[in-house]
TrEMBL record:
This is Sphingosine kinase 1. Coiled coil: none annotated. The keyword Phosphoprotein does not apply. It comes from the Eukaryota. Residues 54-193 form the DAGKc domain. GO terms for cellular component: cytoplasm; membrane. It comes from Cyberlindnera fabianii. InterPro entries: ATP-NAD_kinase_N (IPR017438), Diacylglycerol_kinase_cat_dom (IPR001206), Lipid_Phosphate_FormReg (IPR050187), NAD/diacylglycerol_kinase_sf (IPR016064).
Amino acid sequence: MSRTTLPLLSVNGNPYAISFEEAETKAHINYALLEEDHGPAPSISTDALPLHITTVDLITVIDSVRSGVGRDNRDIYATVLAPLFKKLAIKHTYTQTKSASDITNFARSLDLSKSHTIVLISGDTSVYELYNGLFSQHYTGTAQPLHVALIPFGSGNSISLSSGISSIETAIQYLFTSSTSTSLPFYKATLPPGTHTTTGTPITTPLLFSVTLTFAIHANLVWVAEQPDLRDVGIDRFKIAAARVLEQDLTVPLSLTCATTGSPSSSSKQLTKSTAHAYLNVLAVPCIEKGYYISPNSHIDNQQLHIIHFDVAPPDDLMSLLSMPYQGPQTQHIHHPSVEYIAVPKEESIFIEFLDERVEKSTCCIDGIVVRVDEPKGKRVQIDSVTRDEIGFDLKVVGMNAI
């Protein structure tokens, strides 16, 4: 197994490198922090730390240990982060998640009258749990600075990738040296009565998202992958789920409209020409996994949603179309005759109405959390841009440099 060593930081005048091996799964394992010079690296010292470290009341490191492929031989905190915190005399609290509700509960109890920097060793789902937990506080006081430093350890890492945080070593450099933190825009999804998760838990309040809200083939794939017989299979569960989904009827009937009134009206505009969708995604980011530029005109720091629709097609044709975004940010899939790509002004509400009575045709995935709606026909999902005053906090991503 080959080992890679990369320059990381110069700390108090001493060079440090990060070293790791690559497993068969392509995951990086067996991290090590080496006091060696392997080339130029950002410089930092104990008396010149960035404001998100020196001016906040509390620094908390949360390790979502089940994110991505887990933490077997992948303890980045113990091997790299903790030694750097010690060398720079940075006081902090470290915690590992023990249950799926830990991050939500942490966010619900966070004292927003104090300033915080939260270091998340995780994927997108943990970020989703963090900001929806904060949202559930309905905080009305004067919110203090709230920074989040992302160390991407998930399967997709859409928020990190779209923020220009392309690797774990880049994320660590930003954590200790970045002088910028940029507000993360949010969108609110108001779901109809009868909405529930894969485990049957009812959803009775609006949810925030910052990446994507999707229907049809993508949402159904996630729903199948979350079923009990696949949940513990690992990354291969998505391949198994895809095979099952492609055997099903891929048509999902939905009507998409938008209006500035906050509710559907006679002045509502139809967004997609077709109401038969094989793939439907409402996107705030350009890529939902590394190298997959599904919405090239989206920018995570610009509060505007884009809708992308694929017509129903034979499975082979659909899979060919779904692979086109891997061609890069200049991909031409948005100009394909089977695709509709629409920018929605942030002042307009989006309404997605279910046109089919079957519950399986209501599957919706919101930043990785998948839900269905009982007796869906005629019910609607409403999507709105929201301000920090409306949600009670301003979550700033450390080092965001949107692609």
